[in-house]
Amino acid sequence: MKIDAHQHFWQFDPVRDSWITDEMAVIRRDFMPQHLMAELQAVELDGCVAVQADQSEEETAFLLSLAEKNDFIRGVVGWLDLESPQLGEKLEEFARNKRLRGLRHIMQGQPSGFMLREGFMKGVASLQKFDLAYDILIYENQLEEAIQFINRLPEMRLVIDHIAKPQIALQGFDQWARGMEQVSHFPHVCVKISGMVTEADWNKWKPGDFDRYLDYCFEKFGPDRLMFGSDWPVCLVAATYADTLHLVTQYIQTLSSDEQFAVLGGTAARFYQLTTPDNGFAIKK
Description:
Elements (H helix, E strand, L loop, with lengths): L2 E5 L25 H11 L3 E5 L5 H13 L3 E6 L8 H8 L5 E6 L12 H8 L7 E4 L6 H9 L6 E3 L13 H10 L5 E5 L17 H11 L4 E3 L12 H11 L5 H16 L13
Parallel strand pairs: 1-2, 2-3, 3-4, 4-5, 5-6, 6-7, 7-8
Helix pairs in contact: 5-6
């Protein structure tokens, strides 16, 4: 199956969603399953992974409720307070819903050292008991800390969101590449080919702007550890849904059919252990 491994839903709230600035006004509205379904059908994708955009239990419950009503939402990456004394109880409660496939914390907004805090790391490690993965959302300048984090969680299924947000608009490369090269040595870590257009010049980007970043990711990680994600609707500040997919499909057109399948769904289905519409677990070509 072909899967968008990273997108979001929300009912716009100007207070909660204050991170959406004036220059991002195009996404100051509701984005719900019916809106995404039209996009998926237009590009012939089979489903998606819905990822948290708000750090609350209510957000996780909201996404799971959408997944229960919409079969094409194959999995949810939610949020729980990973340092809470009640985390075990909350995981027991939320993990009963098999559409919950992982958790994420918006690490890019946290101070240096946050992800290495004992309580936070203990919370992430506890996800293994429930067979849940963890999404690492960071900027490239957090890669050094992330490498220590990854090294201490050798049994966890981990994925780097948005190729660790290199400074594409400024043509930054070397610092990002050094960090990603080290990450590539950990076989339990995958990478999402997502979020690139919003790290480029929103109004002037060209497909070629991403080539060296894609070249490096494919060289270091290979298709079996890479997965496409649109980052819809955030991507809309810089590109259409179809544009984000086209960037990746054009890049991988010379790969074998099995390698293309991996990037466009196989890796995500395996990593997140995604459900089929009848709630059975499977990976389909």
